[in-house]
Every structure is written in C-alpha cells, then in structure tokens.
Amino acid sequence: MRSQFLIAKGKNLDIITQAEMVEGYAPLRQDLVRATYASYLVELLDRFTAEHDRHPVMYELIANALGWLADGRDVMLVARYYELHLLSRAGFQPQLFQCVGCAEPVVEQDQFFSAELGGFLCPDCRERDRRAVAVTAVAVKVLRYLQTRNWETVRVLQLKLPLHHQLETIMHDYIIYTLERDLKSVDFLRRLRQEAALFMEEGD
Ligand SMILES: [Zn+2]
Known about the structure:
Blueprint: E1 2-8, E2 15-23, H1 32-48, H2 56-70, H3 75-90, E3 111-114, E4 119-121, E5 133-135, H4 137-148, H5 151-154, H6 161-179, H7 184-203
Antiparallel strand pairs: 1-2, 3-4, 3-5
Helix pairs in contact: 1-2, 1-3, 1-7, 2-3, 3-6
This protein binds zinc ion.
Zinc ion binds next to loops.
C-alpha cells in the first residue's frame, strides 16, 4: 500500500509519529500473480534508486503502475512499460533507434539486442556481441512504442504470449546485466510461470 508518514527526526533513528493510508491497492493482495508483479516492480525501484535520494517522477511511475496492476490490466504489458520508463528515468535507457555498433538508424525489421552494449545491433554488427539475441520486427516495433508513448496510448495493446515472452526475455536480460546481479523477483516469476505451465499441462 501507499501511505503518508509523519516522521520525527531522532538522534539515531527517526520515529514514525503518524501514518495514513493513501492507496490500498486491495486487488493486489487477492491475486498471487498480481502481488508477485507488484513486488517485482517495487523491488526494481529499490534497486535503481538510492536511499534519501528524491525521485518524484519515479514515485509517480510506481504509484501509477501499481494502480494499473490493481485495475486488472495485462500484467506483462504493465511490467514492460514500467521497466522501460524506469530505466529511462534512472539513466539506463536502452538504445532502440540507432544501432549501438554503427550508429545507423535501426529499421523495423528483424534485429539483435545486446544487453552488454545497451541496445539494438543491426545484422551487420551482430558479431560485436556474441551473446546478442535475435529480435523479431514486431518486437522491435512494440519496444519502441512502449518506450516513447504514454500509458493511455499503450494500454490498449493486445500482445500474443510468444511476443510477450520475447519482450520479457530481452528486458530481463538487459535489467539483470545492468544491475549485475539477479533479481529475486525475476526468479520467482520464472518459477511461478513454470508451475502455471505444469498446472495447465495437467489440466489437459
Ligand atoms: Zn550496425
């Protein structure tokens, strides 16, 4: 939940003298998948910000994103939009419009993504990072759309699951590389998805 606190500055520790709930996001606590995504978004914010460092723009982003999750929006779409905008605001915006190898404009066709170099590599430059992953033309288009549009425009997108998984892999590889350590929530989401897939197979 989002709350407002009144804090008295102490010599060693500060003391909370008053607390008032601003937004409860009740639906997030009734749905394990949404709760997991919410905790992932919050953890990501924690990793990309420092204590005592004011970030009003990021605060607005997380407050909105938790609201979109609670409203029953496509959780994967919320997560990808949030990741891209958080990265931009934190100074780690991936380069999606120019090749990070040759600086030529990247056209909307099949490309490669390099987590290490921080953006798209054109087919001519793919050898610059052997770990660069192939990205389909439609994923190129969607990533750019998510990075440059506001949520009101983006929220109507309906993406198929394979495309969602491709976008997730690209973003998680980049985020993990950027943070240089794995995220507990990412592992948890992967496990959850594997379990959900098993459950579906059993149900067939
Ligand atoms: Zn290039």
